[in-house]
Every structure is written in C-alpha cells, then in structure tokens.
Amino acid sequence: MQEVIQGIPLNWYITLSSILFCIGVLGVLFRRNAIIIFMSIELMLNSVNLLLVAFSASHGDVAGQVFVFFTMAVAAAEIAVGLAILVVMYRNTKSVDIDVLNRLKG
Amino acid sequence: MMQDSIQKFTFLALGFFAVLSGLMVVFTKNPVHSVLYLVLTFFAITGEYILLNAQFIAIVNVIVYAGAIMVLFLFVIMLLNLNKETEPHKNPYLKFAAVITSGLLLLVIVGSLKAADKAIATPYPNTGDIMQSLAKVLFTQFLVPFEVSAVLFLAAMVGAVMLGKKEIK
Taking CA atoms, what residue in A is nearest to B46? Predict the structure, then answer.
C-alpha cells in the first residue's frame, strides 16, 4: 500500500498556498469593489486551509483537518455578517465602492 | 514511479488552474464573472484535497464554499444589481503599488520558506477509515469548540438579521 502512495513534496504545497494567499492580498489592495474584496478574503482563507490539510497529511495528524472544519465554520459566519453589512452600506450610500467610506478619516 | 509522476502532474495542473482562476477573480471587471472564477478556484482546491486523501474536507469544501457561500455572494450581487462592469476610476499608481506590494509579499514568503522542509506530504495510510478517525477527534478532543461554533452561528444569524432589517426602532 505504502509504495503506491504518492510523494508530492511539502514545499510544493507551501508554494501554492503562498501564491494563492498573495493573489488574495493583491485582490484586497487592487480592487475598490467591496464584494471583490470579500471574495479575495475567502481566497486567502482557502489557501490557508490547503496548507493546514497539507501539514496535517504530512504529520499524519487528523487534528489539522478539524481546524480546517472550524475555519470553514467561522468563514461562513463571517460572510453572512459581512454581506449583511454590505447590503446596509449599499442602502445608505448607493454604492459598494470602499472609497466612499471615508468618514472615519481624521 | 508511474503513479508518482501522475500525481505530481495532477498537482501541478490543479495548482495552475487554481492560480489562473484566482488571478481572473481579481482582474475581471464583472462581479458575477468574478464569483464564477472563484467557484472554479474552489473546485481546483477541492481537487488538491482529494489528492491529499482528505475526502471529508473536499466534500465540505464543495458544499459549504462552492455551494453555500458563493450562492450567497451571487444573491447579494443580483439583489443589489451590481452586475455591471463599471468600476470607478482609480489612481493607476495605487494599482501599480498594489501589484508591487503583493509581489514583494510573495517573494518574502517563498524566499523565507524555501529551505523549510523537504519532507514528503504523505497522505494518511488508507487502511483505516479516515472519516471515522476524524469524527473521533472532532467529537472527543474538540467537542467544546464544536459546540461553541453553534453559538457563533446563532450570533452570526442574529447579527445578519439585525443588520438587514429596514429600520430598528
């Protein structure tokens, strides 16, 4: 059984997750649309999930997958509240452009 | 050996696919297209989970992320009627700075983790039942966080309803 099982180096997973995470950071910095920024945050969360599963597989410890499960739960709650805030923001400003939200600027 | 190269090829193909559609999420003008590309990214990541022999996480990823969360995004975009391609004009220097910043971040992360670990990510030995061991850990060692997440969901639901109401008296 063991020799059938693969060997993908852990480095590859680290690199892939880093690339996906940086694409998420790029999306947050690059776009002005609040919905796209939310989606970029989801992308970052997913890249970290991938890294957690990879490390959990490499250590043979199932707890990493449980952490991924909890991350997904928190992400779902976060998105529900975040989208509600977005709807309220649209209702007040008629836009989802984050540059409109500058009232807290000193 | 053959199996090994097939798996490496699958990993690379899925990773390429994920990175490509992730970039499309950022650079597409239309928000609906962005959502669809994000769903593609999630499916690619699901493929990576299956490659790691983490079937439960793969299925949950499809159901929760690609199924529920993305539908929520689509609903909000459709309800607010945002599916037009107009993006307010932004300072091009800021865009340039964003690209440079994230590129430097990638450089730092990859550079610092380059010498990290040459270990092989062996998936779980497929003899036992992976679901069974996962459930055992989840419902014994992590039982309290599991219950607390239920409270978190309740709080999120109450918060979303409160925010979504027209006016609060």
Answer: A50
